[in-house]
Design a protein that fits this description.
This protein is an alpha/beta fold and about 425 residues long. The protein has helices at about 1-5, 20-35, 65-80, 145, 160-170, 190-195, 300-320, 330-335, 345-350, 355-365, 380-395, 405-410; strands at about 10-20, 40, 85, 90-95, 100-105, 110-115, 120-125, 140, 155-160, 175-180, 205, 210-215, 220-225, 230-235, 245-250, 250-255, 285, 370-375, 400-405, 415-420. The chain has twelve helices and 20 strands.
């Protein structure tokens, strides 16, 4: 194994991060800054689930932003430190031996010393009519994240377990009225939990009740509900005629099917890690919502990514000695190659050389107002290059910012373009 690792050193990554959400991006920032060769593989779109959130107001130090803007900034920061990115669905990971192999559905094979599993976990959906359409626009899955946006409004909570009860009580801080829709005859959590509901006069509970549909124009205006005891279908609207919120709490599904026979998981399918985010396999770490945790928020995800990356640095240092590999920093010094930093990474490996970047920087600094580059892209190779080019331009000056048009990603529009 030692000989193979040394022979293929140029094709050997220090770390491959599987998943491009906040946890994976955070790990990429830390590892890139530590000058480790890092590759982030994401099957859909970088940023993860948080990209569907139009407004974030509880991320420390950032008063107000969108999920896309926050994670786009994280990605640019990681790219500036030298992290590489690719759209690819990982189909398998060989975790045996010192050199791990990451396989993709497209047939690619990557060699790496370390792996960060930032696979994420998705709230379980119910499939009622309108659920997909109104995600992030009236249909939500996290009271801590989105409860404030329904201040003074009426909300429906779907679910009868521990999370549904706890989140319903939390929502009374904002909502004028909370109506719980429980499909079973009783709650599915401990009596001591649901008995607390008696203290909240604004919470109403409807048992043996099922949500069939939500609808409206821009946001949810009504919901169709069926009483499974009487089979009667009724329409729920807010008393004051305003929009309503729908919160679904029927559990989470960790994306661990690919690794369930290789990594130790708990009964719910979440990855078991130690305090440093290491799994039961040396060199393999996990971060973010795929891990066992009480709070699934962006802030906890980036914390996990940072912890995993920092621990991995020590592991990689040991592996370099064990396999007699020279560090990337040593390689650069021997070839008189400059360190990869925010200022010069794009110039070294991107579309623009250093002279062009300096000229553009002078031009951008003379702008009186910021310029927004709106890139409409799909997930093909051309779009990936287009997005890299846009990110390279944005990295030159704070006078230029970018936006990614999500509509094209949903509709599958094939022709990418830039609209300045």
């Amino acid at each position: 194994m030692m000989g193979i690792a040394v022979e293929k050193k140029k094709d050997l990554y220090d770390v491959i991060i599987v998943g491009g959400g906040p946890a994976g991006l955070s790990a990429a920032i830390y590892l890139g800054r530590a000058k480790y060769r890092t590759l982030v593989l994401e099957k859909e779109r970088f940023g993860g689930q948080i990209t569907i959130t139009s407004e974030i107001v509880n991320y420390p130090g950032v008063e107000r932003t969108s999920g896309s803007a926050l994670t786009d900034a994280m990605r640019r920061q990681a790219q500036g430190f030298g992290a590489e990115f690719a759209i690819a669905e990982v189909s398998g990971i060989d975790m045996s031996g010192d050199v791990k192999k990451v396989l993709t559905a497209g047939g690619e094979e990557y060699n790496t010393l370390g792996v960060v599993l930032a696979l994420g976990a998705s709230p379980r959906t119910l499939g009622f009519k309108g659920e997909e359409r109104f995600k992030g626009r009236g249909v939500a899955y996290c009271a801590t994240c989105d409860g404030e946006f329904f201040t003074g409004k009426e909300v429906l909570v779907v679910g009868g377990g521990f999370a549904a009860v706890e989140e319903s009580m939390f929502l009374t801080k904002y909502a004028k009225k909370v109506t719980m829709l429980v499909i079973t005859e009783n709650f599915t959590c401990a009596r001591g939990v649901y008995e607390q509901l008696d203290r909240y006069s604004q919470i109403e509970v409807r048992f043996e009740t099922e949500l069939l549909e939500v609808g409206g124009e821009m946001t949810v205006e009504y919901a169709k509900i069926r009483d499974n005891k009487t089979k009667e279908v009724s329409e729920y609207r807010a008393a004051d005629g305003s929009g309503i919120g729908v919160f679904v709490f029927v559990g989470y599904a960790p994306a661990t099917d690919m690794i369930k026979d290789k990594i130790v998981l708990n009964e719910q399918g979440y990855v078991v890690t130690d305090q440093n985010q290491q799994t039961n396999i040396e060199g393999v770490y996990a971060a973010g919502d795929v891990c066992i945790k009480n709070l699934r928020q962006v802030v906890t995800a980036v914390s996990d990514g940072a912890a995993a990356a920092t621990s991995l640095e020590h592991y990689l240092s040991e592996m370099y000695q064990k396999l007699h590999l020279e560090s990337r920093a040593d390689d650069r010094q021997k070839s008189n190659e400059p360190d990869i930093s925010i200022e010069n990474h794009a110039a070294k490996e991107g579309f623009l050389d250093e002279a062009m970047r300096r000229q553009l920087s002078d031009v951008f600094q003379r702008f009186e107002n910021r310029v927004v580059i709106r890139a409409v892209i799909t997930q093909d190779a051309v779009s990936a290059e287009l997005e890299s080019f846009v990110n390279e331009l944005v990295g030159i000056s704070d006078k230029v910012i970018s936006e990614i048009d999500e509509t094209s990603l949903r509709t599958g529009e094939q022709k990418p373009y830039i609209d300045v």
